[in-house]
Amino acid sequence: MKKKDRITQILQLLDEFYGINDKCYLHYDPAKNWQLLFATILSAQCTDDRVNIVTADLFRKYPTLEAFAAAPLQDLEEAVRTTGFFRNKALGISGCAHILLEKYGGELPSDIDALTAMPGVGRKTANVVRGHIFNIPSIVVDTHVKRVSNRLGVTKETDPEKIEFDLMKILPKDHWIRYNTQIIAHGRAICMARSPSCETCFLNNLCKYVAK
């Protein structure tokens, strides 16, 4: 089977099993869309569940960008400590709060260059914001997308940025945002890192990992 046909079948099955609606696993207030930026910064090397526990208190304690910008760095560090790499994350969030207020009038920019120019914001974080806040077709490469895409043989790349650009060439644009949502669900329920449930996977006859 040609790779293009195999990927088409994979996408069809993902749509059937996980639906086509985009889902954001991080909690935030749409009226304060910068909260998603901060939550995604915290999600690096941390589970979404842990981030949601932390941000529930964090966003109550600091309800505005002004509150984040005025917060002593040590207080922010303590508030996000359990997400790991808390010093860098607190510094990034504080820096973003200042930039959003001083340069963008408190509004979240949609331009990827503007987003990635902010402290603590890489392409993954920027694409989460662009996809879920602005509905801009974007590929988000997290640990699940990297692992599952490689196992399925959708891409052979291992560097996240190279995976992103490879998937942009391979996947239809209308699948870019929901592919991440679907693969996260698949990676958590079936294609786990250590013990994938290949025998019960609905993609096993299309999977390069199973074929090996």
Model description:
The radius of gyration is 18 Å and the shape is elongated. It folds into 2 domains: 3-23 and 139-211, Helix-hairpin-Helix base-excision DNA repair enzymes (C-terminal) (Endonuclease Iii, domain 2); 30-132, Orthogonal Bundle (Endonuclease III, domain 1), CATH 1.10.340. The chain has helices at 3-18, 34-42, 48-61, 65-70, 73-79, 86-104, 112-116, 123-132, 143-152, 160-170, 176-189, 208-211. The protein contains 12 helices and no strands. With 212 residues, the chain is an all-alpha fold. Helices cover 59% and strands 0% of the residues. α1 crosses α11 and α2 packs antiparallel against α8 (123-132).
Q: Which class of the largest domain in CATH terms? A: Mainly Alpha
Low-pLDDT runs of 5+ residues are none
CATH topology of the largest domain: Endonuclease III, domain 1
Give the terminus-to-terminus CA distance.
16 Å
Secondary structure category: mainly alpha
Residue share in helix = 55-70%
User: Largest sheet at a glance?
Assistant: none
Count helical runs.
Answer: 12
Overall average residue pLDDT: 96
